């Protein structure tokens, strides 16, 4: 599913009207009907519904929604919250159809007049403003939204909640707080931003008849479990351990062995054929007792950095993961620089490795093979040299610009994880839940990532699938056997068996 900016959505509408010859009024009719039918899953026949209609296409959609619901026998009051002169074009045409059909529109005068009606409503549908909004709302929208957000009624929005910007860069705004939003044609960027995501509530996307072959495809896509099933690697019947990748994992310490244990177990559970774990001698007994299937390389701390077999043999592996439990000792950058220079396959950098990577970023431009960085917002803000607040305003832009500048692949972890390729393609994963907000979850994801990268032909598919596998495993566990409170990273590792069994069955069918 594509993800669009406001401008890209405007361009899609223009392609439908100008290139495909779809009349704008017909497109609005299609959109309004699709939204109304989607919203009906949340509206009961006995509910009293109020639809708030503003200017522009959003308001025009509102007239179609109101007419559709009334035609189906629902109790609907339609309130126009802007003067008549603000209703123009296709929206005005649909208002005329609405009135000619025998239905009434109530004109908004003051909030005091509207308030008694709102208090009696079971459902309030917001069709006031669409994708062109930026900054603070003007009256009467600001007062209406302030009142409606305090109601006990079920609140629904058309395309995006009034007041929510469609794109990035805005952090201060007033907005309708929807319980459910029916999105038209494609989700907008703001669905996935920390500051605007809560205003959407639950959401669904409806198709409205746009001419798909004529639409310019954005380099942004929502990636889910169905996409994983289509791209999941199939193991050949005659495959052997060498067929599924030979990986090296570097990290851990005497005081932090658990991080590399979880990453190693996750990698092996994800089908990696051969795994070597490079860690300090003191940690090997603790790690090996939990990871019997791996081989081990002893590393030594010399002048504050890690040396030994790990560096000497790194080039003989198909891919390397570094960073979990590595520590931030002075001089450890030397290890990372050596890996950047010597690893012939994908190099995945996580955790402490990301903190140490900042001074080495220019050297990543010279790598001939992929570098994958897996930061959470704090780590990425450090790498990009911006505040976390600034980063979260525009995570798509920062991720894309950073990936293009340094030639890296980036997984920006969060409730909406943004996966960016070195050429600027982006995918978003929204799986997972608050049960993953615990230490060790990132280590598990990195282990899955190493396993998938070394078994999947497409690097972008491998990164995207790893994130969804991680998140969906947590979702299934909290639905079936765990709660978000008690879920541990080690539970997710054990839950991978169920996930991969499901995916393997799908790929064979």
Structure notes:
Its cofactor is K(+); Mg(2+). Keywords: ATP-binding, Isomerase, Lyase, Metal-binding, Multifunctional enzyme, NAD, NADP, Nucleotide-binding, Potassium. This is Bifunctional NAD(P)H-hydrate repair enzyme. Residues 224-503 form the YjeF C-terminal domain. With 509 residues, this protein is α/β, with parallel strands linked by helices. The protein folds into 2 domains: 6-218, Rossmann fold; 225-508, UDP-N-acetylmuramoyl-L-alanine:D-glutamate ligase (3-Layer(aba) Sandwich). It is built from 20 helices and 18 strands. It has an 11-stranded mixed beta sheet, sandwiched between helices. A 7-stranded parallel beta sheet has the order 3-2-1-4-5-6-7. The longest helix is centred in the C-terminal third of the chain and has 22 residues, at 459-480. The chain is elongated, with a radius of gyration of 26 Å. The two termini are 23 Å apart. The mean pLDDT is 93.
């Amino acid at each position: 599913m594509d993800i669009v900016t406001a401008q890209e959505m405007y361009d899609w509408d223009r392609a439908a009207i100008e290139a495909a010859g779809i009349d704008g009024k017909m497109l609005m009719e299609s959109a309004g009907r699709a939204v109304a039918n989607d919203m009906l899953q949340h509206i009961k026949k006995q509910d009293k519904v109020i639809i708030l209609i503003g200017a522009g296409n959003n308001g025009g959609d509102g007239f179609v929604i109101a007419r559709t619901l009334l035609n189906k026998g629902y109790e609907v009051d339609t309130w126009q919250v802007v003067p008549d002169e603000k209703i123009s074009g296709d929206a005005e045409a649909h208002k005329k159809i609405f009135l000619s059909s025998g239905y009434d529109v109530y004109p908004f005068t003051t909030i005091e007049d509207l308030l008694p009606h709102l208090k009696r409503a079971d459902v309030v549908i917001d069709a006031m403003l669409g994708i062109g909004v930026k900054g603070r709302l003007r009256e009467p929208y600001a007062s209406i939204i302030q009142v409606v957000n305090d109601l006990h009624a079920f609140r629904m929005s058309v395309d995006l909640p009034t007041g929510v910007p469609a794109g990035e860069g805005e952090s201060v705004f007033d907005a309708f707080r929807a319980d459910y939003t029916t999105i038209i044609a494609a989700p907008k960027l703001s669905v996935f931003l920390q500051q605007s995501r809560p205003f959407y509530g639950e959401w669904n996307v409806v198709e409205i008849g746009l001419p798909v072959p004529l639409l310019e495809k954005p380099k942004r896509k929502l990636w889910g479990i169905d996409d994983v099933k289509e791209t999941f690697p199939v193991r050949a019947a005659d495959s052997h351990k060498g067929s599924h990748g030979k990986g090296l994992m570097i990290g851990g310490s005497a005081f932090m062995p658990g991080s590399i244990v979880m990453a190693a177990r996750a990698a092996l559970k994800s089908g990696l054929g051969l795994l070597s774990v490079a860690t300090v001698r003191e940690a090997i007994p603790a790690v090996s007792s939990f990871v019997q299937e791996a081989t081990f390389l002893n590393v030594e701390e010399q002048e504050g950095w890690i040396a030994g077999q790990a560096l000497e043999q790194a080039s003989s592996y198909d891919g390397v993961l570094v960073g979990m439990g590595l520590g931030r000792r002075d001089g450890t950058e030397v290890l990372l620089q050596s890996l950047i220079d010597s690893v012939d396959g994908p190099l995945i950098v996580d955790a402490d490795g990301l903190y140490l990577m900042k001074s080495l970023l220019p050297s990543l431009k010279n790598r001939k093979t992929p570098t994958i960085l897996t930061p959470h917002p704090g780590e990425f803000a450090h790498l990009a040299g911006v505040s976390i607040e600034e980063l979260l305003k525009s995570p798509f832009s920062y991720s894309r610009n950073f990936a293009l500048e340094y030639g890296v692949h980036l997984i920006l972890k969060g409730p909406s994880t943004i996966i960016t390729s070195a050429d600027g393609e982006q995918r978003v994963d929204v799986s997972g839940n608050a049960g993953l907000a615990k230490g060790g979850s990132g280590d598990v994801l990195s282990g899955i990532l190493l396993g998938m990268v070394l078994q999947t032909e497409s690097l972008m598919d491998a990164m995207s699938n790893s994130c969804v596998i991680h998140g969906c495993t947590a979702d299934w566990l909290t639905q079936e056997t765990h709660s978000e409170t008690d879920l541990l990273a080690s539970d997710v590792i054990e839950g991978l068996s169920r996930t991969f069994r499901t995916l393997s069955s799908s790929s064979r069918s």
